[in-house]
Each structure stands twice: as C-alpha cells, then as structure tokens.
TrEMBL record:
Residues 44-167 form the DUF6036 domain. This is DUF6036 domain-containing protein. It comes from Pseudomonas abietaniphila. It comes from the Bacteria.
C-alpha cells in the first residue's frame, strides 16, 4: 500500500508533565508504596496502560477519567488484592482546557481481550522511568501502534478519533499499523470482519488526508 507518513517512524515520546500525566504517576506511586509496605519484591507487579490515558501521554489531544490497564504478577504475595488497592486510590487533576476537577479512577472492567491485540505488545511497551528496577511496580505504556490496534474492537467515534490522533504524531507508520493490525485480527477470537473493515476505512481516510496535505 502507499505510505502516507513516509520515511522513518519518529521515536515515541511520552509527555507525563500534564495534570493527567502527573495524576497517573501519583496513582501508581501510591500503589507502589502499598506494595512496598507489604514487602513485595522488586518487579513483583508489572502493569501496561492502554486506553485514553495512554493516548493522552502520546498526543495530549484529550483527557480521560479511567485508567485502562492490564496487570502481570510474577512474585506478588497472594494476599495482596491489587484491584481493591487501585479502587481505593483515585487521583484528582485539573483539566487545563475546561477548568474542571476530574477524578481519575482505575477501570475494573477493562480487559485486553475486548479487542484485537498483537502478541508482541509487551515487547513494544514504553517503560515509565519514575518506577525504576528497585520498585515493586514496573509501569509500561502500550506503544502507539498497539493502542491503535486495541481500539479497532469497539471502534467508537472516540476510538477512531484516538487512532487518527496517534497516526498524526508520526510515531506510527501506516504500513506498520496495517501489517500488525491484520496479524492481530487474524488471532482475534471475535468476528474478524468489523475490525478489518474499520482498519481499511481508517487507513484510506488517513492516507487521503496525508496526500492532500502534500499539495
């Protein structure tokens, strides 16, 4: 296929200095301290963030009230209830654009199984340096391309807007998005036709827009 954002992909950069970014770090910082109090060892819990919070860290094009994240435990003591801890650790932040005070909470219903997901998503995640190797909590942000792929499942208007915002950052090449998304859809347990059709339409619209901007 023709490549709208030609050339090398830009290295993905996280902006955690926004009010939402700071609230997210504070929320996970509280969780890390709880784990330390329970004598959890370094790297006992790994988390990878998807959803609107992850989109915001790459694009700043919108804020989110929910933290969509998947947890992976290696040596976490069985008596530690991570979901309960997160439910007790909301964080407030001020939305710069609206002036509203927003409460950031963990979405207990989130699952990466709700949409297509490439099998190598963990390898592409970007680690937050705030939580170093000595911390019991290691925090990763899903890569832009993996966030975009995950949003092909529900494909609400907001999801599609997020995908376009991620494409416009230059952190994703359209051809790579297409290749990895098709690989993910091929392994998806749901109906393959809707996400495939949505992917095709998004890429067509994006590449047409990119071509128009070259003139």
């Amino acid at each position: 296929m023709s490549e709208g954002n030609s050339g090398d992909v830009r290295p993905a950069v996280l902006n955690c200095e926004t009010p939402l970014g700071q609230a997210l770090i504070s929320m996970f910082g509280s969780l890390a301290r709880e784990l330390e109090a329970e004598n959890a060892p370094p790297g006992a819990l790994r988390v990878i963030v998807f959803g609107g919070c992850a989109v915001h860290l790459y694009t700043s094009h919108r804020v989110s009230m929910d933290v969509d994240a998947e947890f992976f435990s290696t040596t976490l003591p069985s008596e530690i209830d991570v979901c309960r801890l997160l439910a007790e650790l909301p964080e407030e932040f001020l939305d710069d654009q609206t002036g509203r005070l927003i409460e950031l909470t963990y979405d207990l219903n989130f699952s990466t199984g709700l949409g297509p997901l490439h099998e190598d998503f963990l390898e592409r995640g970007l680690r937050l340096p705030t939580f170093d190797s000595a911390s019991p909590l290691h925090v990763f942000i899903a890569s832009p391309v993996d966030i975009a792929i995950s949003k092909l499942g529900r494909a609400t208007d907001q999801d599609i807007s997020d995908i376009f915002a991620l494409l416009r950052t230059g952190f994703i090449l359209a051809a790579e998005f297409e290749r990895l998304a098709l690989e993910a859809i091929d392994c998806y347990v749901g109906n393959h036709e809707p996400p495939t059709s949505i992917l095709k339409n998004i890429l067509q619209d994006y590449l047409e827009t990119a071509d128009d901007q070259t003139f």
